[in-house]
UniProtKB/TrEMBL annotation:
Keywords: Coiled coil, Hydrolase, Membrane, Transmembrane, Transmembrane helix
PPM-type phosphatase domain: residues covered: 303-520
Ranges in coiled-coil conformation: 240-281
A GO MF term: phosphatase activity
The protein's name in its UniProt record: Sigma-B regulation protein RsbU (Phosphoserine phosphatase)
Top-rank lineage group of the source organism: Bacteria
UniProt organism field: Butyrivibrio fibrisolvens DSM 3071
Protein's UniProt keywords contain Transmembrane: yes
SUPFAM superfamilies for the chain: PP2C-like
Transmembrane is among the record's keywords: yes
Residue intervals passing through the bilayer: 12-34, 186-208
């Protein structure tokens, strides 16, 4: 058997690793912060020099040179002036140039080139071009690597003529090796000091941890291990722990737990058997419920007049929502979306009863409103539980695209015309099924054209909530539909579900989420 490390070794190794990581972290973070400070100082120094030069130069003459590219007497005076500034300021290079969109710059002045010479831009072209076009100095530091000029940081200042137009950019470069040498020296000193201080701290910390934490934990471990192996000590080792803190409380709690655990084990088998029985029954109920709802897609592979896809996600093992679609005859398709009051097993049983009754009434050839009325009549005749169901039911005449619908207190359907967006269709709501005997439902027709889509859903979709109790809402649902409005029915539902998952961000949902998307493709040729 492989021997595992004990808590002593793990704690010691952890302290050593922690010390090394802390030293590295301090070194890296310190170098980053120090690098920013030093780079800012040198960059600010570059801008001070650049501003002094800018104030001394004739910008209109600079503008002249960017068009003629020929030197004159003033140019030679400026050349001598900039050479002295570069020599006495400690700058690596001082030059004036005009950038071009092909990522090159043409020099007005540079100690290493002649007026009119060009070079590729080694620094960030976007920053330099933005400075030239906007007339504002870059907000970030410019650095460049070049085989010709080395590793440099640049201060870049736009030069404007008397009309306020940017005519060129003034650069003051500082050699990065100077900055890097300062940073290296700082990091080495900081790491050495940190390592010494942390080593002393870790030794003291290890001594304290061993005495006050590790040894008591080992005693607790030995006691629990002996209890688990069925060989408890005659005298509890936990009495030796007198730390006057949470560890002593833990030892007393473990001792009490061992006594109560012996009593609990006696009842565990019967409790486990009961839970397994309930779990098996719930699993069977879920399978029965799912078997009553169509879940094979496409449901009618030989029909080319329409596309349909639906999903149902119960909030618990079984739910009260249901959808259905079925061919009443060769030219009529029934569409159902319903939501039963309540949750769990009672709602699932009521759902199955409602589904069977509604489909049976529809198969008798009744209209959409008559189907809901007959379903309501059958449920109200023996509704001892006072449960009810909201339902939207439609009968599509496949050949003409006429959809006859009736609504029993359900959510508004959402319709998309072929070249339009998804929009709520605010139909007339009747009373819920099972709520009152003799309810009459209003029927209406929707004429569907090829490419039109219908989205049906239960209240679990717009009422999906995040951790802050904010609802997903109808507006977000419509936006999610329209973000993939030209996709297939399956892809549309997948996109809606994805948007809900992003919104709720893992928050537990307490209502079933059921939805269906139907697309009318037109009469088959």
């Amino acid at each position: 058997m492989k021997k595992h490390w004990g808590i002593n070794k793990k704690t010691l190794v952890s302290i050593i690793i922690f010390t090394l990581l802390l030293v590295v972290l301090l070194g890296v973070s310190g170098s980053i912060l120090f690098d920013r400070v030093i780079e800012k100082q040198y960059n600010d120094k570059g801008y001070v020099i650049a501003n002094i030069i800018s104030n001394d130069l004739d910008h209109d003459k600079i503008a002249q040179y960017t068009t003629t590219w020929e030197a004159d007497d003033y140019y030679h005076e400026m050349e001598e002036y900039l050479h002295h500034i570069e020599e006495y300021s400690g700058a690596a290079y001082i030059y004036i140039a005009v950038p071009y969109e092909d990522s090159t710059m043409r020099y007005v002045y540079d100690t290493a080139t002649y007026i009119g010479d060009s070079d590729p831009i080694a620094a960030s072209f976007e920053e330099i071009w933005r400075a030239y076009t906007t007339g504002e100095r870059p907000k970030s530091y410019l650095t460049r690597h070049s085989k010709k000029y080395g590793y440099l940081t640049s201060s870049c200042l736009p030069l404007k003529d008397s009309n306020g137009q940017t005519v060129a950019l003034l650069f003051v470069d500082t050699n990065m090796e100077v900055i890097l040498e300062v940073i290296r020296s700082y990091v080495i000193n900081m790491v050495c000091v940190s390592l010494i201080l942390l080593t002393v701290f870790c030794i003291l910390h290890w001594y304290f941890m061993r005495k006050k934490l590790i040894n008591p934990l080992v005693l607790i471990r030995n006691n629990v291990r002996n209890f688990a192996q069925g060989t408890p000590d005659k005298e509890s080792l936990l009495d030796q722990i007198n730390t006057k803190d949470e560890l002593e409380e833990l030892a007393r709690s473990v001792d009490l737990m061992e006594k109560e655990l012996n009593e609990y084990i006696g009842n565990l088998e019967s409790i486990t058997a009961e839970k397994e029985r309930i779990k098996t029954e719930l699993s069977l109920a879920t399978k029965i419920q799912l078997s009553l709802i169509p879940h094979d897609f496409p449901p009618f592979p030989d029909r080319r007049e329409f596309d349909i896809y639906a999903t149902m996600e119960p909030a618990r093992e079984v739910g009260g929502d249901f959808y259905d679609f079925f061919l009443i005859d060769d030219d009529h398709l029934g569409l159902v979306m319903a939501d039963v009051s309540g949750k769990g097993i009672p709602a699932a049983l009521f759902m199955m009863i409602s589904k069977i009754i509604l489909q049976s009434c529809a198969m008798l050839g009744k209209s959409a409103s008559e189907t809901l009325e007959k379903t309501n009549e059958a449920i109200c005749s023996n509704n001892q539980t006072d449960m009810f169901v909201t339902a939207w039911f439609g009968i599509l005449e496949i050949s003409s695209g006429i959809l006859s619908c009736a609504n029993a207190g359900h959510e508004y359907p959402v319709i998309k015309r072929a070249n339009g967006n998804f929009e709520l269709f605010k139909d007339k709501h009747g009373f819920v099924i099972g709520g009152m005997d003799g309810t009459v439902y209003k029927e209406y027709d929707i004429e569907l054209k090829a490419g039109d889509k219908l989205f049906l859903y239960t209240d679990g979709i717009p009422e999906a909530t995040d951790d802050h109790e904010q609802m997903f809402g109808t507006n977000r649902m419509i936006d999610a539909l329209n973000s993939s409005k030209d996709a297939s029915a399956k892809e549309i539902l997948g996109n809606v579900r994805s948007e809900i998952e992003k919104f709720v961000n893992g928050a537990e949902q307490f209502d079933d989420m059921t939805m269906m998307c139907f697309e009318y493709l037109g009469k088959a040729e």
